[in-house]
Specification:
about 400 residues, alpha+beta, Butyryl-Coa Dehydrogenase, subunit A, domain 1, 3 domains, 4-stranded mixed sheet, globular
C-alpha cells in the first residue's frame, strides 16, 4: 500500500490547506458564533475546484479520485470542521452519488452547478424513527402515472436548509423492505416539498442541519436515481466511500487538537518553565500523535481500497476496514480534543480559545453516519461471515 502522494495530490492538499488557513481561518469564530457561513464561501470553493474533486471535467468537475477528496476533507477539517461537514455532504453524499448512479441527462443537469458552488447538495436518509436502521425508513413513494408521490420526512440532514438538490431514499414497495427502496433526486421548489427551520446544534455550527418534509410531493419519474427498487444498491455502493470521507473529518479534528496542544504547551509557563517540559504533558502529546498517525493510516488505506473496489479492483476487506477507520478515528479524535482541552486548562474551558470549538465538533463523529456501536457490530459481522481476508 503506497501512501506517497502524487504531485497532483500534493498540490490539492497544499491548495486546500492554504485556502482554509488564509480565507477561512480568520472567520472560524464568527462562523461558530453566528452559525452561518460567510457569503460567497461556497462559490470560492467551487471556483478553486474543491467542490468538483472526484467529478470528471465533462461534468464541470476537476477530476482526481476519492483519495484526493479525503485529503481535501482532512485539510478543511483541520481549520473548520463545520465547513468539512457541509463539504462532505455536498461532494460525497450528493454529487458523487449522482455521478455513480445518474443517467447522462441527470449528470449534465446537476453536476455542473454542484461543482461550481452555485448549488448546495444534500442527501436524505435518516428519519425520526430510522437512524442506524437505515432500511427501516418510512418515507413512501407511490406511483401515479409517470410520477411518484412522496410522503414522509428526513431529519438531521446536513445542508438541508440551504440545498437546492437533495438525493432522497423512499420506499416504492414497502412490503419488500430493503428490496423496495428507491433513490430520487429532489429539487427545491417541487410541490409538496418543504424544509422547516434550521436545527440548533452544540457543535459544527455554521453547517446548516435540518429536515426534509414531503407532503404529497409530486416527483417526475425522470428523477429516479438508478433503478426503481434498487435504492439499496445506491446506498450500499456509497457507504465505504462515505465512511472514508467522514473519517477524514474526524482525522482533521484530531490533528488540529494536537497542533493546538503543542502550541499552547510551549507558550504556557508554570513553575518557571513551559508546561511542554513536564513529563505528563509530553506523554499526552505523544499519545495524541500516535493515535492520529494510526488513524491516518486507517483512513488513507480505506480511501485507496474503496477507490479500487469502485473501479472494479481488488477491495476484499473494504467494508470492515472503512467501518474500522471511522470507528477508530472518531473515538481517537474525541480523546485528542479532550486531552488538548486538559492541556489548555482553565483557558480551554472558555470560548476564547479554539480548542472549545473542536471539542464540541468532535462528538458528532461517534454518532453521525452510524454510531460507534453500530460500526462495531458491522465489523464483527464481517469478521464472522468472511474472516480476516487477505493480510
Amino acid at each position: 500500500m503506497d501512501f506517497d502522494l502524487s504531485a497532483e495530490q500534493q498540490m490539492i492538499k497544499k491548495n486546500v490547506a492554504d485556502f482554509m488557513r488564509k480565507e477561512v481561518g480568520p472567520l472560524t469564530e464568527a462562523i461558530d458564533r453566528e452559525d452561518e457561513f460567510p457569503p460567497g464561501l461556497w462559490e470560492k470553493m467551487g471556483d478553486l475546484g474543491f467542490l468538483g474533486l472526484g467529478i470528471p471535467e465533462e461534468y464541470g468537475g476537476s477530476g482526481s479520485d476519492l483519495f484526493a477528496t479525503v485529503l481535501a476533507t482532512e485539510q478543511i477539517s483541520r481549520v473548520c470542521p463545520a465547513v468539512a461537514l457541509s463539504y462532505g455532504a455536498h461532494v460525497n453524499l450528493c454529487a458523487h452519488n449522482i455521478l455513480r448512479n445518474g443517467t447522462e441527462e441527470q449528470k449534465m443537469k446537476y453536476l455542473p452547478n454542484l461543482c461550481s458552488g452555485v448549488w448546495y447538495g444534500c442527501m436524505g436518509l435518516t428519519e425520526p424513527d430510522a437512524g442506524s436502521d437505515a432500511v427501516g425508513i418510512r418515507t413512501t413513494a407511490e406511483k401515479d402515472g409517470d410520477d411518484y408521490i412522496l410522503n414522509g420526512s428526513k431529519i438531521f440532514i446536513t445542508n438541508a436548509p440551504v440545498a437546492q438538490v437533495a438525493m432522497v431514499y423512499a420506499k416504492t414497495e414497502p412490503e419488500k423492505n430493503a428490496r423496495g427502496i428507491t433513490s430520487f433526486i429532489i429539487e427545491k421548489g417541487f410541490e409538496g416539498f418543504t424544509v422547516p427551520g434550521k436545527m440548533k446544534k452544540m457543535g459544527n455550527r455554521g453547517s446548516a442541519t435540518g429536515e426534509l418534509v414531503f407532503n404529497n410531493c409530486r416527483v417526475p419519474g425522470s428523477q429516479v436515481l438508478g433503478q426503481v427498487n434498487n435504492g439499496i444498491h445506491v446506498m450500499m455502493t456509497g457507504l465505504d466511500l462515505e465512511r472514508a470521507v467522514v473519517a477524514a473529518i474526524a482525522l482533521g479534528i484530531g490533528e488540529a487538537a494536537l497542533d493546538l496542544a503543542i502550541k499552547y504547551s510551549k507558550k504556557r509557563h508554570q513553575f518557571g518553565q513551559a508546561i511542554s517540559e513536564f513529563q505528563l504533558i509530553k506523554a499526552k502529546l505523544a499519545d495524541m500523535y500516535t493515535e492520529m498517525e494510526a488513524a491516518r493510516g486507517l483512513v488513507y488505506k480505506a480511501a485507496i481500497m474503496a477507490d479500487k473496489a469502485r473501479g472494479g479492483g481488488k477491495g476484499t476487506d473494504v467494508h470492515k476496514l472503512a467501518a474500522a477507520a471511522v470507528l477508530f478515528t472518531g473515538e481517537a479524535a474525541s480523546r485528542a480534543v479532550n486531552q488538548s482541552l486538559q492541556i489548555h486548562g482553565g483557558y480551554g474551558y472558555t470560548l476564547e480559545y479554539p480548542i472549545n470549538r473542536f471539542f464540541r465538533d468532535a462528538k458528532l463523529y461517534e454518532i453521525g453516519a452510524g454510531t460507534s456501536e453500530i460500526r462495531r457490530l458491522l465489523i464483527a459481522n464481517e469478521l464472522i461471515q468472511r474472516g480476516m481476508g487477505d493480510l
